[in-house]
UniProtKB/TrEMBL annotation:
<keyword id="KW-1133">Transmembrane helix</keyword>
<feature type="transmembrane region" description="Helical">
    <location>
        <begin position="139"/>
        <end position="159"/>
    </location>
</feature>
<feature type="transmembrane region" description="Helical">
    <location>
        <begin position="196"/>
        <end position="215"/>
    </location>
</feature>
<feature type="transmembrane region" description="Helical">
    <location>
        <begin position="259"/>
        <end position="281"/>
    </location>
</feature>
<dbReference type="InterPro" id="IPR001204">
    <property type="entry name" value="Phos_transporter"/>
</dbReference>
<keyword id="KW-0813">Transport</keyword>
<feature type="transmembrane region" description="Helical">
    <location>
        <begin position="235"/>
        <end position="253"/>
    </location>
</feature>
<feature type="transmembrane region" description="Helical">
    <location>
        <begin position="61"/>
        <end position="79"/>
    </location>
</feature>
<feature type="transmembrane region" description="Helical">
    <location>
        <begin position="463"/>
        <end position="488"/>
    </location>
</feature>
<comment type="similarity">
    <text>Belongs to the inorganic phosphate transporter (PiT) (TC 2.A.20) family.</text>
</comment>
<feature type="transmembrane region" description="Helical">
    <location>
        <begin position="388"/>
        <end position="405"/>
    </location>
</feature>
<keyword id="KW-0472">Membrane</keyword>
<feature type="transmembrane region" description="Helical">
    <location>
        <begin position="349"/>
        <end position="368"/>
    </location>
</feature>
<keyword id="KW-0812">Transmembrane</keyword>
<keyword id="KW-0592">Phosphate transport</keyword>
<dbReference type="Pfam" id="PF01384">
    <property type="entry name" value="PHO4"/>
</dbReference>
<protein>
    <recommendedName>
        <fullName>Phosphate transporter</fullName>
    </recommendedName>
</protein>
Length: 494
């Protein structure tokens, strides 16, 4: 038997160190979700103490503190789920890193909520229930508390399974369920509910059609042209001008409520002016950026990168201005009712309530947002800057059209519908071009059904999961809210 060489003990130590290294990596992987959970819990605790300090109404302060904690929980879930729709396409197209997207979204969402968020919010979320049907202010408080808890729980569950759902629809379902439990089916405004149900179909369909139309335009006018760079110099400034005009109109309508109320026609005039100025400003930028680029599709992605990042930032600002108020609406209603002892159809949103919404969204995005950002950006269909740009444009245009038609639409459904639209258009366009090529060159190659399914550019499993989540959001949140309301009312109103 040979004596062990001097290196043998070192080999043993190396193996032990390797095992320790693997163990450390495993521990870090397992503990990563716990860090996010710890940050979320710490934020909710801080909000509870802050609410106790800001609100002093005797024995009723405990209710406001509890509502503030649940409001913080709701805001965290908005950040984890809703914001992904704005940043997902830019990340999926590699125009932004995950870290860059999170920073931009956190800043723009908070700025939108605090600078341009509405001062007044409907306590009953778009007139879903009649507050005069509620028998007492205490019952109303429990109904709003149930709506807050149930909508937050539902969005949390949707994020966990990887489905981007509408926060607004979750709140609507929560308010409806609590209203039915508190005052019966006659308390619900079924006409408003019918409009919201119609938006389940209209929002994603319209978003998908607009996104597909812009992609078709880009393909025909730029990508399929013989001289792609020359075509890009002609048309990309036009597309950037359309983006600027659309967002100027969108933000005029939705994002400037605190400063001035702008109707649709003046907003369109503002948008047209901004579009003209942007066209002449962006033309020299595109000409300079395109110098020396090769005549291929990869070069075109460079020209769409910065406009895509700007559009994602603007979408986040508009989302913060428009949707945060809806999310903290039940909390604002509880604070008002507890303070004044009356049920109001519309209430002022206290600054500290908006701060909870703004900061909660940021923390939720940072800790839990990457999962849904990856889902929207890369797991539904493959995006590049041109396709992602079409999604961003469709989101803003569809909201403006819906506002003009008076339809209550969901920004979540529009953005994800835009991603679906881009993917399904690419499938159709690929099949059309393949068929034309086969007819021209006489190629009659038969592709097996299994291979055709594998070549689908939109993942059907994700498509079905998301659509199913959209369909059941309102009824699921409503059922959960009714159960929570009956439990709260039974415990505290005996």
């Amino acid at each position: 038997m040979e004596n062990p060489t001097p290196q043998d003990p070192w080999k043993t130590i190396d193996k032990d160190l390797q095992r320790i290294s693997v163990l450390e990596q495993g521990t870090m992987y397992v503990s990563r979700p716990l860090v996010g959970m710890g940050v979320a819990l710490a934020f909710m605790v801080i909000v509870g103490f802050a609410a106790a300090a800001f609100f002093d109404a005797g024995h009723g302060s405990a209710i406001v503190v509890a509502a503030a904690v649940f409001g913080a929980y709701m805001a965290l879930n908005i950040g984890a789920n809703d914001v992904a729709n704005n940043m997902g396409p830019a990340v999926g197209a590699n125009a932004l890193t995950m870290g860059g997207a999170i920073v931009i979204a956190a800043i723009c969402e908070s700025a939108g909520a605090l600078l341009a968020g509405g001062d007044v919010v409907s306590t009953i979320s778009k007139g879903i229930i009649d507050p005069s049907m509620i028998e007492s202010s205490q019952v109303f408080i429990w109904a709003m508390m149930a709506a807050l808890v149930s909508s937050a729980l539902w969005v949390n569950l949707a994020t966990w399974i990887g489905a981007p759902v509408s926060t607004t629809h979750s709140v609507v379902g929560g308010v409806m369920g609590a209203g039915i439990a508190a005052a019966g089916f006659t308390a619900v405004n079924w006409e408003s509910m019918g409009m919201i149900a119609a938006s389940w179909v209209i929002s994603p369909a319209l978003g998908g059609i607009v996104a597909a139309a812009f992609l078709a335009f880009i393909k025909s006018r730029i990508i399929y042209q013989e001289d792609k760079i020359s075509a890009a110099r002609r048309w990309v400034p036009v597309l950037i001008a359309i983006m600027a005009g659309v967002f100027a109109t969108y933000l005029s309508i939705k994002g400037l409520k605190k400063i001035v109320s702008v109707d649709l026609v003046p907003a369109l005039i503002i948008g047209l002016g901004v579009a003209v100025v942007t066209y002449f400003a962006s033309k020299p930028y595109i000409n300079k950026k395109s110098q020396g680029l090769e005549n291929r599709n990869k070069s075109l992605k460079i020209l769409f990168g910065l406009p895509l990042v700007i559009s994602a930032a603007l979408l986040s600002f508009a989302h913060g201005a428009n949707d945060v108020a809806n999310a903290v609406g039940p909390l604002a209603a509880i604070v008002h009712t507890q303070e004044f002892g009356e049920i109001a159809g519309k209430v002022q949103i206290p600054l500290w309530v908006m701060i909870i919404g703004a900061f909660g969204i940021s923390f939720g995005l940072i800790t839990f947002g990457p999962k849904l950002i990856k889902m929207v950006g890369s797991q539904i269909t493959k995006l590049n800057p041109m396709r992602a740009y079409c999604v961003a444009l469709s989101a803003a245009i569809t909201v403006i059209v819906a506002s003009w038609l008076g339809l209550p639409v969901s920004s979540t459904h529009i953005a994800v519908g835009g991603v679906f639209g881009v993917g399904f258009y690419r499938e159709w366009d690929h099949a059309r071009r393949t068929r034309k090529y086969a007819e021209k060159h006489g190629s009659g190659k038969i592709v097996a059904p299994e291979e055709r399914r594998r070549r689908k550019l939109v993942r059907r499993s994700h498509f079905m999961t998301i659509v199913a989540a959209w369909i059941i959001t309102v009824p699921a949140a409503a059922l959960l809210s009714a159960v929570v309301f009956l439990a709260l009312n039974g415990l505290f109103n005996v």
